[in-house]
Each structure stands twice: as C-alpha cells, then as structure tokens.
C-alpha cells in the first residue's frame, strides 16, 4: 500500500476526498493536515476531526497547518459555497469528533516522510501554503515525496473566484508558484478544466445518500454546496452544457481518485506560470505550450480530453457509497 498524506481545507469536496482516501485499499493514509482555505483554520481543523471520526479513522494523526497565506492576506474565504461551518451547514452530521491534533502539520509531514520506507504521495487539496513551507524548510525531504497531486488552477476555462483564478491557487499564489513552477517534485495538477466536467447530479447524490451514514452525511451538504458551486460555475467557469443547479463538482474527490489510482485521469505535461501580481489576474495559472525549455519544469495537468468522465464518476460512486465500499472492488 502506498503511503498517503492529505493536506486539506474541509470543505465539502474535501470531505468527499477524505472519505475516498480513508477507504481506498491502494493506500495507507498516514496523516491528514488541515490548512486555512474554504473556512478559517480552527474550522478546517475541527472539520478534519469530524471527518476522521465519522469515517472511523481516529488512527490517522492530524496536524495543524498554516492559518494564512505566505505573503499577502486574502480578502475572502468560501463560506458562500461551503457554508459557515465548512460542511454545507450540516457539520453536526459528521460525528463523532475524531482525536485532537497531534501537533503542527510540518512536523507531522516531516515525520511521515522520514520514517516511510517508500516514497509518499502527498495530496494537496487546499491552498499550497503548507506544501511550500515544507519544501522551503525541509528541502532534504523533497526526494521522499514520490508524487504531489494538487487540486487547483484553471488553464483554459476561467476561474471560480475571479475571472481567471481558481480558489486554492488564488488563496496563496506565492505558495502555488513555488510549488508548481520552482520546485521539482513530480506533480500532477487537477484543475477546474476537468473537475467542472466531472460533476455529479441529484440522482448520483441520492444514491450516495441512500448507501449509508457516510454517504448520507456527504450528500446532505448539497443543499448549500451545490447552490454555491453552481452559481460559481455560472460566473464563467461553466464547461458542461448540462451543468446547472442540479449538478455539482466535487473537485477534491477527483484529485484524490488520481492520487490513489494513478493514471485514472488523462494528463499532458505543461510548463506553468502563476500570476503573483496584485492586479486582477492574481492567482491565474498560465500554461505555456510553446515548449521553450526542453528539460524544464513541467507539471502533468489533468484534462478532459482522453479522460473517461463517466468512468471517473462511477469510480467515485463505488469508492464513496457505504454499500459498495464493503463489497469487493470491481
Ligand atoms: O476551487 C476548488 C478548490 O477550492 C477545492 O479544493 C475547494 O475545496 C476549495 O478548497
Ligand atoms: Ca479543498
């Protein structure tokens, strides 16, 4: 089993992602670390405890990460999409509360990296502040990260938090630039371009709700989350003509599916740039397709072309529905 760490800002779609990670037979979930993002750090930390408790994974240590971006403060969170409690207004459904955090995120991640006898997969599904700080303060550990899987960015369909920027990158563009442009850890980026195509509808959500307590709690978030995301999508990131209020993206779950089952998503290697200016394009990810620098830093960017979108949606159902998780995996 591949050792896995998830850095997260739960967050409704983070909840789907953590459920998938906690139940995936391919991986050994070695640590979860909470970072600021959708809601503030105390709330993302409590929500991570809630998720580990509901999933029966109190064995997984929790670390507390960054409470703000590296350089410039951000003006907003995403409570309009995820609810003030960060879990679609139904946080109380995610119970019992898991154990208290064991300490700071960077210490926990470093400990897992140092003690693992094989390279670790690090999934980052919130702002990249913790990942940037880890690589800046412990460059010696970079080689122990076998693969970084990031949910973030938008390379061609526009943003969900501004005209061009996706929320995770926009929340800390300096951190995102360090990780996606200047570091050399093998990285897969799962952007809005794909996650806004792999949306789920009310039938999919109803089946999830009927599958058992975890599915029911996850699906119960749709009354808040779906509305917010749908509105967000209408602001210019809309991809799928079928999209509407009845379809919601579960961005982070798509990224975690790739993390636990490498190759599920079609990817293309791209040189990236991240706008860290303070202007209207701040947080925008630029894909440079000119192929200028042979041997330069490229990131494997997940794209809809070549991805079996229906297959991904079905795989997410198989891995999330309580009644299918216990069944042998097909
Ligand atoms: O833009 C979507 C991303 O930002 C997701 O990770 C969501 O949870 C928020 O963190
Ligand atoms: Ca997230």
Helix content: 25-40%
Bound molecules: alpha-D-ribofuranose, calcium ion
Q: Name the helix and strand elements from N-terminus to C-terminus, one letter apiece.
A: EHEHEHEHEHEHHEHEHHHEHEEEHH
Count of distinct structural domains: 1
Second rung of CATH, namely the architecture = Alpha-Beta Complex
The major beta sheet can be summarized as: 10 strands, mixed
- How many helices? The count is 14
The end-to-end span amounts to 18 Å
Beta-strand content: 15-25%
Task: Tally the beta strands.
Answer: 12
The chain-level structural class is alpha/beta
Query: Would you identify the regions where 5 or more consecutive residues have pLDDT less than 50?
Result: 230-244
Biggest β-sheet: strands ordered side by side in the sheet: 4-3-2-1-5-6-7-12-10-11
